[in-house]
Specification:
This protein is an alpha/beta fold. The chain has helices at 2-21, 50-63, 69-78, 98-107, 139-144, 167-181, 200-208, and strands at 25-30, 32-34, 47-49, 65-66, 86-92, 112-116, 150-154, 187-192, 212-214, 231-232. The strands form 2 sheets. Strands 1, 4, 5, 6, 7, 8, 9 and 10 form an 8-stranded parallel β-sheet that branches. Strands 2-3 form a two-stranded parallel ribbon. The structure holds zinc ion (ZN).
């Protein structure tokens, strides 16, 4: 009983401390951005119009200083005091449309991490739930991405539910991602779980492989604990 009360007091104290002295780092994720919506390329909730995306980014830039994912991780691991409001931009699934917003992001000096599924980089594979390839980045596209503002992370070799994989299948999945992406000059050892689905076992595997897990739990980040929390960018308001 006493332990429970102490834990409750400690949690409350931490919440107050975080609120007053440790500004959260927000990590945003988006998917496809294009001028018009193509239902064969992605789900409506994963799409944003180019105009709305640009406007949202400019709005966020008024509120936050954008930093890279590795810088955010390092700040979350080491800082005990944070007044400035930082944000990180990430994009999942490797939609080819991301190429059209990279010049705008570069112009705004905003770093971005692209989480990719190497299986779909070959330009021919058909992703079962969506349209055929041209919609996705290819090896050739990836080779052209050399900007120091862009980093490349893993999103599973295929877009599978990692929580449903056996520990050995998940480890193979991650190893295959490293084999495909590890040599890219902008590669960083970060793994964004598809749909955010993970288990204590997948978390342990990533820890063993010195890879930082990236979640999709809608939370803000005050300190680093078991991964980087993210929220979807909302371009509807
Ligand atoms: Zn995804």
């Amino acid at each position: 009983m006493a332990n429970k009360i102490i834990t409750k007091i400690l949690r409350k104290t931490e919440r107050i401390y975080n609120k007053l002295l440790l500004a959260p780092i927000e990590v945003f994720v988006f998917h496809s951005v294009s001028d018009t919506y193509d239902p064969s390329s992605c789900l409506k909730q994963d799409w944003s119009s180019t105009a709305a995306f640009r406007q949202k980014i400019l709005e966020l830039k008024q509120q936050y200083t954008f930093i890279s994912l590795p810088e955010a991780t390092s700040r979350l691991q080491s800082e005990n005091l944070r007044r400035k409001h930082y944000a990180v931009l990430t994009s999942d699934d490797g939609f080819k449309t991301v190429l059209t917003v990279l010049p705008f992001l570069t112009e705004q000096n905003i770093p971005i991490t692209l989480f990719l599924n190497p299986q779909y980089l070959d330009g021919t594979t058909i992703r079962p739930d969506y349209a055929p390839q041209p919609q996705y980045l290819t090896h050739a596209d990836l080779a052209q991405i050399t900007s120091p503002l862009v980093t490349i992370g893993m999103h599973g070799y295929q877009h599978l539910d990692c929580a449903a994989q056996t520990p050995s299948d998940f480890r193979q999945n991650v190893s295959a991602c490293i084999d495909a992406l590890g040599a890219h000059p902008r590669y960083i050892p970060y793994f964004a779980y598809p749909w955010g689905n993970h288990t204590p076992s997948t978390q342990q595997t990533l820890r063993d492989m010195c890879i930082t897990p990236v979640l999709c739990d809608g939370r803000s980040n005050h300190r680093y604990s078991d991964g980087i929390s993210r929220r979807c960018i909302d371009t509807t308001r």
